[in-house]
Amino acid sequence: MSSSSSTGFDVVVVGSANLDLVARTSRLPKPGETVSGSHFFEACGGKGVNQAIASARAGARTAFVGALGRDHAGETLLAALLSDGVDVSAVQRVSVPTGRALIGVSDDGENSIIVIPGANHA
């Protein structure tokens, strides 16, 4: 008996879930410096969420196990997982804010990332 027939899933991902806050800029700032950005967007992120969505998009029956806050970011990530067909029945909703990642990306593709783990450490 294969594991997928006993669990109902081809892939179960246990991992982090973050709402990425991404700013594009011509170059990343040096310590203590402020630079202007050219574009801002929010995206689903966290290694676990990214892998679960990629797995589901590739056609695998996928479940995600992780923690999300009871906030707008948690709702956004939950909706994205569901819209890609990821099972979220094992996701825990906690009273800690959902994880965030502040990401600066320069025009040449370099990035700088600060992660606030939030619910991922709950």
Describe this structure in words.
The protein has a single domain (15-121), classed as Ribokinase (UDP-N-acetylmuramoyl-L-alanine:D-glutamate ligase), CATH 3.40.1190.20. Helices cover 23% and strands 37% of the residues. It has helices at 3-7, 47-57, 72-83, and strands spanning 11-14, 18-25, 37-45, 62-65, 67-69, 92-94, 99-106, 111-116. Strand 7 and strand 8 form a beta hairpin. The longest helix has 12 residues, at 72-83. The N and C termini lie far apart (35 Å).
Task: Tell me briefly what this model is.
The chain is an alpha/beta fold and 122 residues long.
What's the layout of helices and strands?
Elements: H1 3-7, E1 11-14, E2 18-25, E3 37-45, H2 47-57, E4 62-65, E5 67-69, H3 72-83, E6 92-94, E7 99-106, E8 111-116
Parallel strand pairs: 1-4, 2-7, 5-6
Antiparallel strand pairs: 2-3, 7-8
Q: What brief labels describe this structure?
A:
122 residues, alpha/beta, UDP-N-acetylmuramoyl-L-alanine:D-glutamate ligase, four-stranded mixed β-sheet, elongated
* Strand order of the biggest β-sheet: 3-2-7-8
Query: Considering the protein shown, what is the CATH homologous superfamily?
Result: Ribokinase
Class of secondary structure makeup: alpha/beta
**How large is the share of residues in beta strands?**
35-45%
Question: Whole-number radius of gyration?
Answer: 16 Å
Mean pLDDT: 95
Name the helicity range: 10-25%
- Biggest β-sheet description: 4 strands, mixed
Quaternary: single chain
CATH architecture level-2 label: 3-Layer(aba) Sandwich
Provide the CATH top-level class.
Answer: Alpha Beta
Q: What is CATH's topology name?
A: UDP-N-acetylmuramoyl-L-alanine:D-glutamate ligase
Number of helices: 3
In whole angstroms, how far apart are the ends? 35 Å
List the uncertain runs: none
Total beta-strand segments: 8
